[in-house]
């Protein structure tokens, strides 16, 4: 480490405080593999791989057409030809659909011959060894447990994949990276899609729609954490560790650094497999990290959400850097969106630009150069010391309020980019009929009604900008306004309120006065059921109880006799002049 001892001691105190903070136990899911392997190749190399594995695994070889392969002297495992159309599953539970599938004929002599082929054959296996050299069968293929893919042109890569496949037998524990509460999910309501943030970001397709919410397959999830970082409601939350435990570790580190006299702390967030070796190399063979740079290990850098970033700057960080691979294992779009949103909020609160960014480096010298190039920046003038507790959404809101309190320029309202998880809804009150369909689909209760009066209320604190209200509104009078408003707190504002209509018999309030008067005026002279019948029109102006009593008293069918049914033949006779033309009822 560089700098005099007085500069190093605060850093040592901070790292020890973070390490001493306890973490909850890791939840696991179990993967079971019986050693059934499908080897998918394009030539005799797949058969050779099968020969290497036949003593260890239950082998089946699938060769892409035309499958010109010398027939083995003894058929020790099944060989077939075919082309994989689709694949799904994970270690211990793969399902492969094959077209042009045909089993090898046992009477093959020089070259393998095959029986008649068919499409749509289904194969189930525990392990897939892909030596085809084609497009990967899965998105983010290197993150799919049990799917091994090697370049058939590299004997070393093929042998390495064979050795890995040999060991994939038995029971394996895998961390359950995400905890999910489907009752909080804002994906859809009434078959109208709202929030798709997690679906858009998942690199492994572990997240799929499932009715009004999504479902996350923990056996496929690779733990990048982008879904949890982007989830606006907290339905998806990272579990390695949970967000409250992560914030407590960050708090312990930052408070210990300040109490030991440290200044201008820069936090370097990194994962253990990539970041730890670079930091270790700098410590062993270089000058180490600058004394004011505090390394902090997370399971995946992409798991870092806005709540952690907000808390760090509220606790007194001068800058935050996130260390990534030069060639990331999966897309980091979600992390980029989180950083862009954090930069907007920090700039709006007077922190200025350049406070948070990524460093893409695989070389320790490049990492050191990037860190030394960052200028010293002032910290928040009133650093916070709040203790993190509660759910993800509550922690995020609380961290943002503490960030505003500690900020150089604590503004009340900050405009945010589209897609931000905070904001208001704007309603064209002239076009709103208070049908309250928006209330029925709002997943967080941000929009609500009143049992006593026709009223639409809104709590901005609960709004996650999922867009369900905007998509559902039949009058199309709702628009979203992404913003961060610190003034509202838990307050509720009335967006529109009208007088209720009172039943003309019992004076009981029901419905919306303007709507019922509008409907009555529209039907009075135009609809066959109410035309020239004031008594029937009065039914619209009565509550549900009085309407039944009125029909009984008057002894009439409220629906009357509809116009006679007109058939296609009637319309044709009108066209030919055999009948006078009539207006449809």
Report the biggest beta sheet as strand number plus sense, adding barrel if it closes.
7 strands, mixed
Helix content: 25-40%
- The secondary-structure class comes to alpha/beta
Rg over alpha carbons: 33 Å
Q: In terms of quaternary structure, what is this?
A: single chain
What can you see in these coordinates?
Helix 1 (5-20) packs antiparallel against helix 6 and helix 7 (272-285) packs across helix 10. Strand 13 and strand 14 form a beta hairpin. The protein has 585 residues and is an alpha/beta fold.
Concise structural overview:
By secondary structure, the protein is α/β, with parallel strands linked by helices. The chain has 17 helices and 27 strands.
Which helices and strands appear, and what pairs or packs with what?
Blueprint lengths: L4 H16 L7 E6 L2 E6 L2 H10 L4 E6 L15 E10 L5 E10 L17 E5 L1 E5 L15 E3 L5 H12 L3 E6 L2 E3 L7 E2 L2 E2 L3 H5 L5 E4 L2 E4 L9 H5 L5 E3 L4 H17 L6 E6 H14 L7 E6 L7 H10 L3 E6 L8 H16 L7 E5 L3 H9 L19 H15 L6 E3 L7 E5 L9 H5 L5 E2 L6 E4 L9 H5 L5 E8 L7 E5 L2 E3 L6 E4 H12 L9 H6 L4 H11 L13 H8 L10
Parallel strand pairs: 2-3, 2-7, 3-4, 7-8, 16-17, 16-18, 18-19
Antiparallel strand pairs: 1-9, 4-5, 5-6, 10-15, 11-12, 13-14, 20-24, 21-24, 22-23, 23-25, 26-27
């Amino acid at each position: 480490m560089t700098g005099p001892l007085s500069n190093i001691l605060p850093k040592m105190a901070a790292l020890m405080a973070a390490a001493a903070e306890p973490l909850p136990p890791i939840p696991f899911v179990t993967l079971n593999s019986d050693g059934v392997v499908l080897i998918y190749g394009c030539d005799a190399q797949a058969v050779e791989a099968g020969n290497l594995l036949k003593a260890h695994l239950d082998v089946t070889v699938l060769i892409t057409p035309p499958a010109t392969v010398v027939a083995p002297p003894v058929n020790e495992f099944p060989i077939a030809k075919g082309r994989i159309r689709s694949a799904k599953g994970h270690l211990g539970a793969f399902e492969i659909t094959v077209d042009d599938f045909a089993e090898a004929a046992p009477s093959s002599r020089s070259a393998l011959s095959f029986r008649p082929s068919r499409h749509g054959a289904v194969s189930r296996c525990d392990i897939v060894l892909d030596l085809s050299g084609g497009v990967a069968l899965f998105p983010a293929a290197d993150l799919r447990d049990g799917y091994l893919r090697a370049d058939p042109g590299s004997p070393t890569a093929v042998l390495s994949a064979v050795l890995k496949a040999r060991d994939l037998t038995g029971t394996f524990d895998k961390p359950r990276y995400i905890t999910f509460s489907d009752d909080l999910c804002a994906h859809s309501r009434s078959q109208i899609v709202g929030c798709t943030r997690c679906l858009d970001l998942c690199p492994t397709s572990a997240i799929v729609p499932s009715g009004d919410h999504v479902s996350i397959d923990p056996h496929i999830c690779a733990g990048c954490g982008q879904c949890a970082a982007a989830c606006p409601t907290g339905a998806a939350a990272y579990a390695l560790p949970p967000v409250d435990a992560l914030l407590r570790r960050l708090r312990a580190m930052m408070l210990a650094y300040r109490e030991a006299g440290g200044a201008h702390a820069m936090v370097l967030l990194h994962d253990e497999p990539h970041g730890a070796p670079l930091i270790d190399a700098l410590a062993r063979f270089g000058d180490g990290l600058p004394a004011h740079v505090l390394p902090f290990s997370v399971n995946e850098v992409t798991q870092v959400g806005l709540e952690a970033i907000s808390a760090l700057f509220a606790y007194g960080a001068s800058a935050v850097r996130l260390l990534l691979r030069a060639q990331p294992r999966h897309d980091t779009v979600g992390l980029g969106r989180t950083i862009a949103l954090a930069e907007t909020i920090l700039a709006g609160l007077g922190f200025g630009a350049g406070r948070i960014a990524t460093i893409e480096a695989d070389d320790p010298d490049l990492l050191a150069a990037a860190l030394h190039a960052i200028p010293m920046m002032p910290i928040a003038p009133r650093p916070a010391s709040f203790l993190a507790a509660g759910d993800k959404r509550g922690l995020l809101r609380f961290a943002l309020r503490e960030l505003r309190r500690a900020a150089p320029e604590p503004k009340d309202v900050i405009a945010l980019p589209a897609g931000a998880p905070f904001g208001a809804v704007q309603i064209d009150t002239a076009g709103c009929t208070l049908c309250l369909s928006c209330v029925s689909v709002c997943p967080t209760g941000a929009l609500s009604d009143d049992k006593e009066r026709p009223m639409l209320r809104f709590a901005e604190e609960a709004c996650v900008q999922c867009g369900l209200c905007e998509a559902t509104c039949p009058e199309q009078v709702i628009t979203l306004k992404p913003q961060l408003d610190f003034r509202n707190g838990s307050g509720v504002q009335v967006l529109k309120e009208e007088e209720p209509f009172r039943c003309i018999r019992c004076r009981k309030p029901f419905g919306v006065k303007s709507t019922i008067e509008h409907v009555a005026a529209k039907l009075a002279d135009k609809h066959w059921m109410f035309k020239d019948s004031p008594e029937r029109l009065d039914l619209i102006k009565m509550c549900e109880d009085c309407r039944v009593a009125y029909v009984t008293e008057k002894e009439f069918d409220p629906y009357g006799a509809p116009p006679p049914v007109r058939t296609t033949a009637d319309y044709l006779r009108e066209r030919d002049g055999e009948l006078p033309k009539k207006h449809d009822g």
